[in-house]
Design a protein that fits this description.
alpha+beta, transmembrane helix, transmembrane, single chain, DUF1385, four-stranded antiparallel beta sheet, DUF1385 domain-containing protein, 7% strand
């Protein structure tokens, strides 16, 4: 029996003949795919449906050709990926959990309708009771009945009732009184009167929605009652209700705006946290372990780089314990399987995609690891010691701050070099033995950043990729039709 290959081995040996430029990113309950002309997001909604949203990609090559030069294009690609990634995450967050508030409202509306039905039943009982009271009064006047005394000895008031002369009132009996609404209401302790509270007496209470916006539940807004006229509610309530619906629309847009602000704040906080975790903290610890930078430059940069990799690996492992991130890593695996399926020329179905490994040689995880490796070389070559001695930077905190600032400033250069190696060169020569050596650390990291997906997640990835492929086919058809149409013109 042949030994089963690992996903790492299969990712290299089963790389498809078609090398697509389409890439993707795992999202919250979804996948984003990016092509030449557009990018598409497919998100699994709580209802089970797949929400798809597409956006055009505008190339700035004609106006800013220098941004597509080697090294520079890596920085541009990194910034674009960050911006698109956060926008895609914003879309996914809105639709992956967007119906939860609606479900809460629907449940509240159902409770409100049930309460209305109970009130209507009580109102019907009260009306029947009033009719029975009128009939009893008529019998008193015609049949020689007299009303029961309203007081007894000791001045304690008794409930009014009509009884025959010389006959004491008996307690409630199911056998005798079942079918007599007045006795039923009295005996079971039901409410005898129905009080209708107007909107002025009970103002609506806003509650905080899923995204922080104010919304109004059906219980808080009695104007939504379709039978309000029957209960004697003023007709102006309908107009008020219409106004509240308009306000609800404004609140919805306000909630979307608030969600966008949250995403921007998250992006800024994430960048700051990344600088602190992967640049400032390793540099500070290295300075404590090795000493001053200019005294042990090579050892300083090696220890700093190893600490940075260790922090990154531990961070990925730690967040991978969270349930939501586990599912996101499953969508990451689904994205890879969908791309494998296309590159092998098979129909895009979950059944076909399922057979491929969850690792992929052109994954962006390899780019991140390459950034950390290239950083060690660039920081070592950069003449920071000359700057330190030339400006006479003192030991201690000033020198450490200069080292940290130099690392942040050199990040675009490092990103550009890493892009040329991992994306342009290694992506075009996957069979080269040196490529396998260079990509090996990144491939190992994919064991942490991907999980085996289910068919529903692969379906989501396929839908996103199909949206991108359909656009590219349409652009090809348009380009092919243009020369044929020009002679006729």
């Amino acid at each position: 029996m042949a030994k089963q290959k690992s996903d790492l081995s299969r990712a290299f040996s089963e790389d498809g003949a078609v090398k697509t430029h389409v890439g993707g990113q795992a999202l919250i309950e979804g996948v984003m795919m990016r092509g030449k002309y557009n990018w598409a997001v497919a998100v699994r909604e709580p209802s089970g449906a797949i929400y798809v949203e597409e956006h055009d990609l505008k190339s700035g090559k004609d106006k800013n050709g220098w941004m597509y030069w080697p090294l520079v294009r890596g920085c541009r690609a990194l910034v674009e990926s960050l911006m698109l990634g956060f926008k895609a995450l914003e879309i996914a967050a809105l639709h992956a959990f967007g119906d939860e508030e609606g479900e809460q409202k629907a449940a509240a509306e159902a409770d409100f309708v049930e309460a209305e039905a109970e009130l209507e039943g009580a109102a019907a009982v009260a009306a029947e009771e009033a009719k029975r009271a009128e009939r009893e009064e008529a019998r008193v006047s015609e049949g020689g009945l007299k009303p029961a005394p309203t007081e007894v000895q000791g001045g304690v008031k008794a409930a009014p009732a009509e009884v025959r002369e010389g006959e004491e009132r008996a307690g409630f009996s199911w056998k005798r009184d079942f079918g007599h609404p007045d006795e039923m209401v009295d005996g079971l302790g039901a409410q005898r009167t129905l009080e209708v509270v107007s909107e002025a007496d009970a103002p609506a209470r806003p509650r905080v929605g899923a995204q922080g916006g104010a919304s109004t539940t059906p219980e808080d807004n009695p104007g939504n009652d379709p039978v309000g006229g029957d209960l004697g509610r003023p007709s102006a309530a309908k107009g008020d209700d219409a106004g509240k619906r308009d306000a609800s629309g404004d609140n919805s847009s306000a909630e979307d705006e608030f969600g966008h602000r949250e995403m921007v704040i998250s992006m800024v906080v994430g960048l700051v946290l990344g600088v602190v975790l992967f640049i400032v903290a390793p540099a500070a610890v290295t300075n404590l372990i090795v000493g001053e930078y200019d005294d042990h430059t090579l050892a300083w940069n090696i220890v700093d780089g190893l600490l940075r990799v260790a922090v990154f690996v531990f961070y990925i492992w730690l967040i991978g314990r969270m349930e939501d991130i586990k599912r996101m890593f499953m969508y990451h695996g689904a994205e890879h399987k969908a791309i494998h399926c296309f590159e092998h020329g098979l129909p895009m179905t979950p059944e076909n995609a399922r057979q491929f490994p969850r690792l992929h040689v052109r994954c962006g995880t390899a780019f991140l690891i390459m950034v950390m490796v290239i950083a060690i070389l660039v920081y070592t070559i950069f003449p920071l010691n000359a700057i330190i001695s030339g400006f006479g930077v003192p030991d201690g905190l000033p020198k450490l701050v200069l080292v940290i600032v130099a690392r942040i400033v050199l990040m675009p250069v490092i990103a550009g070099i890493s892009y040329e190696i991992t994306v342009k060169w290694a992506g075009s020569h996957p069979d080269n033995p040196l490529v396998k050596v260079i990509l090996w650390p990144g491939m190992q990291m994919q064991y942490l950043t991907t999980n085996e997906p289910d068919d529903a997640q692969m379906e989501c990835a396929i839908v996103a990729m199909q949206a991108v492929l359909n656009r590219e086919e349409a652009e090809k058809a348009k380009a092919a039709a243009a020369p044929a149409a020009s002679p006729a013109a």
